[in-house]
Design a protein that fits this description.
Blueprint (H helix, E strand, L loop, with lengths): L2 H14 L3 E2 L8 H11 L13 H14 L3 E5 L2 H16 L3 E4 L4 H4 L4 H4 L4 E4 L9 H5 L7 E5 L12 H13 L3 E6 L2 H8 L3 H5 L4 E5 L10 E5 L1 H13 L8 H13 L4 H15 L6 E3 L7 E6 L3 H15 L1 E2 L5 E2 L6 E6 L9 H12 L6
Length: about 375
């Protein structure tokens, strides 16, 4: 067991034991997850085989209904789904350029798979910490096959465009003959800020990927949605990429459970995130972004070293069974650290006064400056 894994297990164990949780959710044990799968499965449900039948097809049908798309393919990972979507755009357009934000998931978190495996080129759309504007897309100095828009842009602070900005960007891409793909790993919770349903958002694009574990609490897995032609292509390349697993019913059942249980609650999380952000923004030296949050996730900065903040959070959990915010990271500003705050079901129990009290108890555990 590595030191990193041991420390992760310690954090998970402490979080599970907490009675109060501001950021995140209490991780479910394997036994608890098995109970969820059993409650989701009907007695006559048979396993899927190599992507056909069972819970996998049930997930695909459900997502097609939610997104209003012609077809859907279940994938074991979102990284794989996006590689296929970008490859398809290059093949049907004859252009190997992909419009990507420097902070987008393919550039930051996928080890250059778009280039190494797909033979594609990144064309940067903007240097600003937001999705590109219509003017920036119209001014790209070379043609691309696909414009990828990440909704929300996680590594800029879970930021979203307005609906008018989004439709303008898509319109600019259409004017230049670019396909549009939505990295919708967190699309489910983006609908509140955009003011339109998931189907209305998906209708803007040629393809969209959604995740089942980032906000819905699933085990793993993703879906790629679009035209029947795209999905036929996706199934072939899913096989080539090693994604044609013999059976995927555990991940598919967990996805269905998330669509049933968590999806309807996301608007409440988004609404409560505004209250949480306002309370945290009043802490000494604190800053939140965006303010107010666009989804149920946002960034929080505090003027303390990351190690001290993480130690204080774990001490609070050990001593009071209360979890404030974990996962603190150093920033380019010495002595200032950042963490991502995720407002989920446990935080709904906390009003502004309780949040402020929890923050005070957390800050008291920091060493004097």
């Amino acid at each position: 067991m590595t030191d990193g894994y041991a420390e992760r297990i310690r954090r998970v164990t402490l979080l599970r034991a907490c009675d109060t949780v501001l950021s995140g959710s209490r991780p479910a044990s394997v036994a608890e997850q098995l109970d969820t799968l059993r409650a989701t499965a009907t007695d006559d449900l048979l396993p899927d085989f190599y992507g056909e039948g069972g819970a996998v097809e049930a997930v695909e049908r459900r997502v097609a209904e939610l997104l209003g798309t012609e077809a859907v393919a279940f994938f074991p990972t979102g990284t794989m789904a996006q590689q296929v979507a970008m490859r398809y755009g290059a093949e049907v357009s004859g252009r190997d350029g992909v419009g990507l934000h420097p902070l987008s998931h393919p550039l930051v978190h996928e080890r250059d798979a778009y280039a190494v495996l797909g033979g594609l080129r990144a064309v940067l759309t903007t240097g600003a910490p937001r999705n590109p504007t219509a003017e920036e897309v119209a001014a790209l100095d070379e043609p691309i096959g696909t414009l990828l828009l990440e909704l929300p842009l996680r590594d800029a602070g879970f930021v979203l465009p307005s609906w008018d900005e989004l439709t303008a960007v898509v319109g600019a891409a259409r004017e230049r003959g670019f396909r549009v793909h939505l990295d919708g790993a967190r699309l489910w919770e983006s609908t509140v800020h955009l003011g339109h349903s998931a189907a209305e958002v998906a209708a803007l694009a040629d393809s969209v990927y959604v995740s089942f574990y980032k906000s819905l609490g699933g085990h793993a897995g993703a879906a790629l949605a679009g035209s029947a032609d795209l999905v036929r292509y996706a199934r072939a390349w899913r096989h080539r990429y090693g994604g044609m697993l013999f059976q995927q019913w555990p991940a598919a059942l967990a996805a269905l459970a998330g669509l049933d249980g968590e999806l309807p609650r996301l608007p409440d999380y988004v609404a409560h995130a505004k209250l949480v952000a306002a309370a945290l923004g009043g802490l000494p030296g604190a800053r939140v972004h965006p303010a107010p949050p666009h989804t149920h996730q946002f960034r929080l900065w505090l003027p303390h070293p990351a190690a001290a903040l993480n130690d204080a959070n774990l001490a609070l959990a050990e001593q009071e069974r209360a979890w404030f915010v974990g996962g603190w990271q150093e920033t380019e500003v010495p002595g200032v650290s950042m963490a991502e705050v995720t407002v989920a079901a446990p935080a709904l129990d906390l009003d502004a006064d309780r949040i402020t009290d929890l923050a005070d108890r957390f800050l008291r555990r920091l060493p004097p400056t």
